[in-house]
């Protein structure tokens, strides 16, 4: 580590949180300096590991005195480089992993109060122990933290019924850029007493302040969950099937994941134990799940009626309902192994985008055609949360083409094709991964001047010294 911070900064930090929690040795700091995708590697004058909100506040005040920028970091599982320092060595990483306490579980209020460094899987487990459900579910739930989930407004597989992380949060505790602690840990569903500060900090990726704790909503545990796979001829049919499923099952429909045929072929290629689920190929596969408060029998009866109607209407070409928990887990494993199979296949051009649900079929058709014209043979890995309009729309190099030079030659052009199409359909270039440093230029390019100016005004008002995660979200 090549520190450019004054030694007095490190001494003050050591006095505030103890020498064992001010990391400067390169061996100790290395895990904090590279993002999960290994796209970015930065440098830092120190990695600071406080254990309380008060210690975070003290470190922020010290950073202000020494004009040291802070990069908040949770589980370091982000996908847009939002928690990675720059290469200057002048910034400090502020790890929140030691803020890992569950402060309160209130079953009657259906809330859980947790610190920012609590791992998502632990929140789920503590909710389950109280007979409740915390519905946020992500592939990285064994290592991502609630602070990171809030900072990027993470989505996951349950958004259709439960909403993004923002919808699951009732209150926050935040350390401001001035080193003050705002206690907004109110477990209220209704609080109409002024500006909604909570929502400003959620999704801000640590650029307006540092989230140190949150009050999160809990829900009743479902009596049963039933999972099915349905094969469809097109994305348009998938949209019609989604509408039909919502009419038949209402709020019981908690998952509706779209996967192209190539996605599952790729999984089967690299994980042969995960077989293609149907005897014949189908253009699109939908994974859907019902969470029923009554019984498994009730959920299965709903599924049977839904599938009968969908088959009769020609929306669904084939279907299979999981007979047990193991088979249900197998269906979800197919979905969750798509990114892993992509990685095995080689580097690819990733896009985490959102368009209005009604436009998804048109977006896929038009954008696929534009990419095929620009790069004949390019393979599309299209999957995502159809129920909320979020697609992971990724471009794999043509068969047999070296992926690294393919990315070097086509990444910029592919991004422009995809993001221009997203913009035409009034969508977003980032749905659930955040902006970070990866999409900072694209986000600004597609926003209006008015919107960018308002965001910069907020940033300057909250963080006039620009020490809160600079170079992320906004330039």
Automatic annotation (TrEMBL):
Gene3D superfamilies: 3.30.465.10, 3.30.70.2190, 3.30.70.2740, Uridine Diphospho-n-acetylenolpyruvylglucosamine Reductase, domain 2 (3.30.43.10), Vanillyl-alcohol Oxidase, Chain A, domain 4 (1.10.45.10). The keyword Flavoprotein applies. Its cofactor is FAD. GO terms for molecular function: catalytic activity; FAD binding. The keyword Flavoprotein applies. It holds the Pfam family FAD_binding_4. Residues 40-221 form the FAD-binding PCMH-type domain. It comes from the Bacteria. Signal peptide: none annotated. SUPFAM superfamilies: FAD-binding/transporter-associated domain-like, FAD-linked oxidases, C-terminal domain. GO terms for biological process: respiratory electron transport chain. Keywords: FAD, Flavoprotein. PANTHER family: BLL6224 PROTEIN, D-2-HYDROXYGLUTARATE DEHYDROGENASE, MITOCHONDRIAL. Belongs to the FAD-binding oxidoreductase/transferase type 4 family. This is FAD linked oxidase domain protein. It comes from Paraburkholderia phymatum (strain DSM 17167 / CIP 108236 / LMG 21445 / STM815) (Burkholderia phymatum).
């Amino acid at each position: 580590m090549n520190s450019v911070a004054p030694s007095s900064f490190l001494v003050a930090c050591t006095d505030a949180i103890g020498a064992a929690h001010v990391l400067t040795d390169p061996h100790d700091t290395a895990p904090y300096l590279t993002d999960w995708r290994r796209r970015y590697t930065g440098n830092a004058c120190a990695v600071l590991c406080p254990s309380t909100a008060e210690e975070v506040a003290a470190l922020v005040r010290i950073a202000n005195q020494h004009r040291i920028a802070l990069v908040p970091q949770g589980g370091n599982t982000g996908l847009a480089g939002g928690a990675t320092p720059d290469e200057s060595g002048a910034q400090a990483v502020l790890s929140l992993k030691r803020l890992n306490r569950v402060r309160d579980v209130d079953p009657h209020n259906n809330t859980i109060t947790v610190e920012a460094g609590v791992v998502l899987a632990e929140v789920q487990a503590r909710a389950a122990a109280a007979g409740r459900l915390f519905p946020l579910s992500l592939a990285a739930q064994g290592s991502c933290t609630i602070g990171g989930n809030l900072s990027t407004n993470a989505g996951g597989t349950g958004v259709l019924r439960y909403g993004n992380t923002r919808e699951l949060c009732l209150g926050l505790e935040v350390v401001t850029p001035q080193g003050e602690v705002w206690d907004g840990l109110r477990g209220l569903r209704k609080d109409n007493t002024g500006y909604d500060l909570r929502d400003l900090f959620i999704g801000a990726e640590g650029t307006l302040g540092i989230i140190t704790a949150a009050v999160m909503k809990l829900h009743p545990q479902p009596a049963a969950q039933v999972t099915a796979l349905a094969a469809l001829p097109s994305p348009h049919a998938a949209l019609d099937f989604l509408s039909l499923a919502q009419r038949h099952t209402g709020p019981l429909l908690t998952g509706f994941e779209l996967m192209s045929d190539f996605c599952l072929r790729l999984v089967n290629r690299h994980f042969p134990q995960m077989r293609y689920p149907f005897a014949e190929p189908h253009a699109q596969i939908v994974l859907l799940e019902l969470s029923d408060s009554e019984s498994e029998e009730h959920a299965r009866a709903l599924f049977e009626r839904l599938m009968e109607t969908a088959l009769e209407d020609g929306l669904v070409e084939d279907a299979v309902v999981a007979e047990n928990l193991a088979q249900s887990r197998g269906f979800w494993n197919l979905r969750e192994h798509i990114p892993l199979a992509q990685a095995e296949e080689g580097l690819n051009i990733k896009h985490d985008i959102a368009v209005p649900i009604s436009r998804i079929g048109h977006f896929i058709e038009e954008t696929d055609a534009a990419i095929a014209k620009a790069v004949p043979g390019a393979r599309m890995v299209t999957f995502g949360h159809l129920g909320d309009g979020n697609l992971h729309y990724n471009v794999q190099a043509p068969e047999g083409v070296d992926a690294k030079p393919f990315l070097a030659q086509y990444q910029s052009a592919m991004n422009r094709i995809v993001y221009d199409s997203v913009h035409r359909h009034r969508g977003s270039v980032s749905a659930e991964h955040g902006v970070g440093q990866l999409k900072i230029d694209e986000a600004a390019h597609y926003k209006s001047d008015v919107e960018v100016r308002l965001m910069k005004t907020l940033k300057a008002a909250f963080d006039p010294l620009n020490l809160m995660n600079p170079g992320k979200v906004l330039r």
